[in-house]
Fold this protein.
Amino acid sequence: MISLTELQRRIDSGELSPQAAIDRSLEAIAAKDKTIGAFVCHDSKARAANNGPLRGIAVGIKDIIDTADFPTEMGSVIYRGWRPRADASVVMALKAAGATIIGKTTTTAFAARDPTATLNPHNHAHTPGGSSSGSAAAVGAGMIPLALGTQTGGSVIRPASFCGATAIKPSYRVLPTVGVKCYSWTLDTVGLFAAGVEDLARGLSAMTGRPELLPQPADARPRIGVVTLDFAGAPEAAGGEALRIAVAAAERAGASVHSLRVPEITAEAWRIQPVLQEFEAHQALAWEYTTQYDAMAPKLRGRLDESKGTTSAAYDDAMKIANKARQALAAMYDEVDVLLTFSAPGIAPKGLASTGDTRFNRLWTLMGVPCVNIPAYIAEGGLPVGVQVIARFGDDARVLAAALFLETALKR
Amino acid sequence: MISLTELQRRIDSGELSPQAAIDRSLEAIAAKDKTIGAFVCHDSKARAANNGPLRGIAVGIKDIIDTADFPTEMGSVIYRGWRPRADASVVMALKAAGATIIGKTTTTAFAARDPTATLNPHNHAHTPGGSSSGSAAAVGAGMIPLALGTQTGGSVIRPASFCGATAIKPSYRVLPTVGVKCYSWTLDTVGLFAAGVEDLARGLSAMTGRPELLPQPADARPRIGVVTLDFAGAPEAAGGEALRIAVAAAERAGASVHSLRVPEITAEAWRIQPVLQEFEAHQALAWEYTTQYDAMAPKLRGRLDESKGTTSAAYDDAMKIANKARQALAAMYDEVDVLLTFSAPGIAPKGLASTGDTRFNRLWTLMGVPCVNIPAYIAEGGLPVGVQVIARFGDDARVLAAALFLETALKR
């Protein structure tokens, strides 16, 4: 993978020009993307900016995020060739920080579950996960140092785990979703993929103008609460192994680690997340579902067909449960700094039929809390498996600090 | 004005065809809009649907709300002729209920403060208010029975007060903002304009599929708390008179009415609302402000210039204050069912230079609570002045019930 931190160091020292850094990504795309298929389109003549903390950093943008300079096709024939007027806010934030938008990365249709043709860079017989398939694969394959994705169920953390990338789903609305195709306004969250935790911190800090997100001189060793969400089912062997390895590494590095149970109400929140998600999706995608029904991707259309009868009363109940669960969850952080759990049940599923299962992600998206995926284990077939560090809502600096601690511990 | 309730009654009884109801609006537009200028464009061949509770109801859509069948120009030359791919969710909700989208109504550029050329239907020498200028004027002039607007500061309630229309700004996210040009994602709220409270209830209920919003057999007489927000300054004479008249009418009708003080923290929330609003606007309008600076409307551009230096720390503080104020405000509703206060300082300002002052609106938008404007008083020059009824967050049924009570009391 391409380290953003290393590129910045070399550019700052004058050892590497910003354009040479961009060219390195262009060469990697030319060499690898014919096989991987992470990009919908890219600018083979992309130019570097000369200023800004992200000068020389090539960024891939998930294709449900509006760009004025590239088509934005939403992974759907309905938007084939579609040209938004304006860049999304997050794209402008990247540009303002000097980044180069190098292209658009593949997405499942409207960020739902119909798979793209993108391959897992670590094993071409497996899915890269979704819905941010192209962003995870492009970073995991070492084509680009930074990419944007979005998560409504588990579409940032899960593909990152499958592709061996590091990724952050920040707290809800740290990054605006203006200009991002909506699936569920209560859940949709823009996230970042990169080669390591420090890269994420530098990227997110530059995009938001928040210096407090930059890596701080190593904090005290974090208090880590390990949670397994029994109500979400058991992980596969590889998922369990990744968590075991991460726990052992954290303990060896001196963190206080102990098992915790999440509050009862979170099980209910986990169960109602799809109610909330699909009720909002029916409104967010009303034009597509009503007027372009035949052109809708089949899995998404089927899911909308099934959830058609959801009542506003069921939605209101789901919202109340979510709010209660958020409050109950916040209380856990009196005892611990972060939670540690699975990023996905196990390795990336074989074939491209499924983008994987959101069961270890959707609670955290619903809670709006910041999550970071860190690669922890390489399973059979060369397939990576990550673990996820989760902090209190709004504590993005802490989730990054704890993730950096764990990443360092895992490298020892 | 055209009563939606009356149209529905006549259509239901077979006395009036849905198309005849639409034609009535087309004729009114043809007769009045050359003078008023409430529409950016309209479909002079608009057809009625034959089904749905809103069949035969012609609706005007504020021109920052995406429509697939009409251009969406955002009140700005930057979007001249712009054609979105999809209808906004609220437009689809109207269509699903059988409404006819008859045209797009004028808006200040990006729903900020640069006035449109629209005239106040009650006195052409005055502004209709803004930013939902065309929607308020079109309903107030009796051209259409229903219109959509949006409120970020006071852009639904204030122009409704100036134009003698009834209007609701529902609780935050009762109506989705998907496909609505964003100014501030924490504040932007879609609202409805109509001739009376029952019309609003019928419109909102049909759009949301929420039967509980329909007028209920008259509830107990509401407990009303009158608040005046001293920190927002004194009202003008006409604003004070409107509130005095409304209080007297409510008391006569048997409501329990007493003065209340809003919690201290709401004064702070009122002060920081612009910090939050402009910090988000810089991100929401980043593409326009950065790449189309010269084409930006001057008042909006000036406001963005001034607020350029707002830090994320100031924004985070503003968010914390807003959250505290929301909690403190919720506690008031243990004593009362609704609050009653000014909709605007007074009559619509003379001339078109200003769309009016948001000082009696922006706290309530920030709180996310449902507000209804009811015309209460006709001042000199034939200019209407409204009052505003406000309920607890999520209690849209109660705000409508109390507003209906007050409206009835005012008619006696």
The CA atoms of residues 213 and 397 of chain A lie 5 Å apart. The longest helix of chain A spans residues 264-284. Chain A has a mean pLDDT of 97.
